[in-house]
Amino acid sequence: MEKVKQKDLILYSCLIILGLAAPYLFSAFKVQLTYLCVLIVLAMTWNLQGGEMGYNTFGNILFYGLGMYLTASVQVGMFFPLAEWTESGGEKTFVHTTAQYFQGIGVGLLVSAIVPAVIAGAIGYAILGLRGHYFAICTLGLGIAAGEIAGGIEIIGAGQGFTTPPFPAEIVDTEARGKFFYFLSFALLVGTFIFVKYIYGSRFRLILNAIRDNEDKAEAMGIQTMKYKIVGWMCSAFFCGLAGGIMGGLIGYIDSTDVAFDGREMGVFMVLMAILGGKGTLWGPVIGATLFHFFKEGLWTLILGWQYVALGVLIVVIVVYFPEGLMGWLREKYPERFGEVIDEKDRKAQVELK
Amino acid sequence: MNKIAKLFVTFISAITLALVSFTSSFAKVDGEYIVLGSAISLTGKYSSNGVHTQNGYNMAVDRINKMGGVEVQGKKYKFEIIYYDDESNPKRAAQLAERLIKQDGVHYMLGPYSSGLTKAIAPVTEKYKIPMVEANGASRSLFTKGYKYLFAVLSPANQYLEVAIDLAVEKNGGKGVKIAQAFEQDAFSQDVRLGILDAAKRTGSEIIIDDKLPKELNDMAATLAKVKAVKPDVLVVSGHTKGALTAIRQISEMKVDVPMLAMTHCDAAKLSKQHGKKSEFALCASQWHKNLSYKDKFFGSGKKYAKDFQKEFGYDPPYQSAESSAALLVFKDAFERANSFDRDAVRDALVDTEMQTFYGNIKFGPGGQNVAKPMILFQVRCKGDDCENRVVAPTKWASDKFYHPIPKWSERS
What we know:
The complex is a heterodimer. Chain A is mainly α. Chain A has helices spanning 2-25, 30-53, 60-77, 82-88, 98-127, 132-150, 175-200, 203-220, 225-251, 256-260, 263-277, 284-299, 307-321, 325-333, 344-353, and strands at residues 162-163, 253-254.
């Protein structure tokens, strides 16, 4: 046991060193690396819901979008009148000093983690009684509704969109912005991973799995499933909100349906990535998101105009050939590497019985 | 779990190696080519206008290259454009702009289609001090931010339909009119709306319906039902191509009678072809019309441009294509005047641009918008089943008189 842990330690420190060195090694790819971190976080948090708990949600995009608007609004609202900012498109009339910018984004991110979590709790209380397809469809509606509502609220820019504060001009280094957002998202990724890893070793995960495998039985065992479902969703919302906040700052321009509550893209991607890697596993979403991102960045420009057709084919291939995702497929092929012991005698005996 | 982790590490290191070997930066000027970059909407809701834009760019690149290219320091260069598909999504557009600049080494950018996407890209080009000449981002808020590297060959969006309100007031004997309006929830249309609000205030007109239309709009029956009930003097609709098509389709289906109908994007939507007589009398704002009398040595007149464009792409050029072609003429002119590939020198040359193209005069204001060219209005008119866009305002180029009011549906054959 001790030995395994030591190996793990080496692996994790390697990954962290790689993560810290990445923006210097691949300076030109900083933005894509930042996206990668955020995508992994989204896939991992979706996996808590869809993979571990068996509640397929399309609603996590709600928390992502909320986080985006909240971070930007707080960052502006702390120092300037928000309505005037969005009215004028900001920038020219109001300029954040360096200190204001970082204070704003710090407080903004804090708010963007807490508020979505609270909202997830409230919504969860209302709709987590739904199961299966009903829950999926209901959450699909949440994201769409949020986009339309945000598109009508004047104070956050409505249809005009919301230009987030520009990176402080006093910092002359043009690379600084890229580095700042990369390290922010990398920190979020590490935090999320540690948290999910912790959950994987806890009773909480077993309860989530029990809910997935047979909710009625779990309830009969005396587990207050509702409570755990809500807490599970709140955890997802917490990290989704943070991811959204970081993305808002990075993109610099928030549009209600295309950037923030982007259910058609991000909302679908997070599900796809988790399924591609293998839902219900720790590494699955990480691998899925990484593969997906490389596929997207590498191939999409080669097949200009046809990328969504290719994406459709990819989805079909995944569902048909890898229904359990890459991790599930590997697990079936090399069960011993996953620590599953197969008793050959027993297996043969069973085959003969048939 | 551990073995899998190992697999993962192998995977990561493989990619690392691949990336390291791939990190080669292309030059801004590659041999005899000046490389421009553009993220453009080839898929998604702006795809039809994205293609109009791309066709406009390509047409100008071909023409300029064929006619000798760009002469800088005595050497002839040709234009080349790297395109990416931004999927009509601002998030993607910003990311691609970054990619064009950082990975493809592009030093000069052409704009995307739509104000929203331009808004997303402008902060990136500004950050890296990359001059961008854009032809399809008209939102006023683009020009109030003090961007130094953004240049637009078009007039700002709030000017699109202001003239239409003035016309309506004029027809009403100088008294204010009752306006019904419906605008898509996006940066461009909302700016057109601001222009109408200003015009209404100025002329003492009253806005009696002020509706918002969703993006991806396919239905505005609710607004039209209200219009039927309250009978405004003017109905204003703006929502890109889909907005124009939806409005005409439903107005004719529901037989909505309104004395004046003002819209945007009629020519991009090919209204007069797609809806024929149903679209007759619609009044449309446009940046350009082929009948205008501007000229340049590359494309000749607007009519010549339209003919060549028709030959090359098989349809009449909407103004989106014309203004996109003009963007390249601006770049060529700036490179030659700067006589250098230094970004700041090119930027300074762009500031001093003062030229005439087939598309119109171009001179940039302090915010980067084109201040030398007025908007025009045309009206769809039909002879038999053959419908055409005729310029009705401003009077300098008007080929036809403005027809007012629109006859009732019961009187139309």
